[in-house]
Amino acid sequence: MLIDIKNLYKVYDLGEVQVAALNGVDVSIAKNEYVAIMGPSGSGKSTLMNIIGCLDVPSDGEYILNNKRVSEMVDDELAEIRNKEIGFVFQTFNLLPRANALHNVELPLIYNGTTRAKRKEIAKDTLEKVGLGNRMHHKPNELSGGQRQRVAVARALVNNPSIILADEPTGNLDSKTGEEIMQLFEDLHKAGNTIILVTHEEDIARHSRRIIRLLDGKIVSDEATKN
Amino acid sequence: MISNSFALVGEYISMAWVSIISHKMRSFLTTLGIFIGVTTIITIWTTIQGLNNYVNDTLSEIGSSVVYVEKFPWVITGDFFKYRNRKNVTWNEYEAIQRYSTVADYVTPQVVSQKTIGYRENKFENIAVLGTTESFIETSSVLPSEGRFLTELDIRNRISVCVLGAELATRLFENTDPIGKRISIDGLKYRVIGVLERQGDFFGQSRDEYAVVPIGTFRNVFGPHRGMQIAVMTNNADAVDDMKEELRGILRKERKVKPDEEDDFAINEQTQLTSFYSSTTSTLYAIIIVIAAVSLLVGGIGITNIMLVSVTERTKEIGLRKAVGAKRINVLSQFLIESVAISSIGGTIGIAFGIIGGSIVLSFMQVDTGVSMSSIFVGFGFSALVGIISGFYPAFKASNMNPIDSLRYE
Predict the structure, then answer these.
(1) Do B220 and B201 lie in a common domain?
(2) Are residues B303 and B258 located together in one domain of the fold?
């Protein structure tokens, strides 16, 4: 299993009250799965995503990613795992505004010590893969929303991560462009990537192969889609 | 891990550059404080270094193995009153030193007076005329550049000859050859037998405007009762202290100083001047340290303030960098290098302006000397240090940000 989560808890201490965002979650995800995590706001889906993405650690329980016990790691170790294993795609793209597309895609490579020349080469190839070979030297404000999200996808892919973790990737796009991005994910999935999609839109979730629904910090359903 | 951070320095520098040029006005204003601070420091530093070199060069021309027996010390501390009633140093004391000193190799008596010197229609007032002996060229280490210096024969026979300082020779004779010409000193004629090599200026004051005549001739014409300075020199540099002790003994005996009384004469030497100079400049150094500290503190606070603003503005960027794998040290280094870059830009411009400023001050003092390269190191050192200190807190704050909250920051 690529992801093995057992009895996961996340409790936020708000002083007088303690709020459990995750209340005993068990889930396993295999390599090359295409999973959507769904749930209304407050269901704990963001918390689960943050923990899967190694941005946060659980209060209790176990998270094993690619045979590494991530649940017991500290800050800088998590940073290294994120760099190697996770590719993030955010709703708001989160590109560096002053850097061109190429440099934005290079970013994860900077932090694992790839040489400058090698970085340019890999980033270029990856941008071509998402269909932006002719937009490499444009800055984000010179790109359309769809193109920006493609740059972000290229950035997520550039380090060959184990998981692509997409948080509402179409939330800031019109429906036609959103469809295009979902098609890109479809292609990536077919190429062998593992994709985890966090969304509250049924239409978007239906693109995946498996939907996990959360409510009040617990998994309420976990089933395959018709795809 | 550490080597990885080193390899990234180039990246941090280009990140800093992007950030600085995308806020040109803000970066300019921030760096202004450092610029003013470093300019101040380097101006004063350049001036002091220039003065030091100049004064030390000039003073070292007074040989360190020469002492001067005089009525007054060169540097007077306390009240002048106790020196006022001292007896002049006289010819008898010169003779006593010559007769009794075993350490001294050269003993040169010197008497000076301001006179009017003329050659044909050229006349100059208040020119120093020095009466001395042939050993003057040894004790003052000045050689004739044309003709010859006074000889023992000139001295013994009190001949009316003179040797001119280079500047005086030029002023009197312009382009003609002075050797063999007859000049007048207070109306009496002297034949010019030589011109001394040029000594150069000291703080804009020429040291080449004087005439040298045999001491006997001087005493005959201007009277024998003038105060005298006796230069005493040893060829053995290690014997200077012995020589001073010996001179004290000879002079105390000759001047009949009682055993319980202080010396009523002074034995002066070059080190007195250098130590007086350095004690004076150490006060100046203390003042610079205060000025430097205040201006760099103000500049540094400006940088801290702007870096804090910058870190807050770029919260989302920090969150993203952390999400894609930046460790704490990476974020810390990035912002630290940015603040060092801002202050170094100010520092670099400050160094340039400071060197120019210092050179202008020195040229007003008529001190011509090379600019000390140490000021470049001082300037860079200070500005980098300020960059590190003032950037540390904002950079530390950035490195400790939580990636989830930062990514969500609007």
Answers:
(1) yes
(2) no
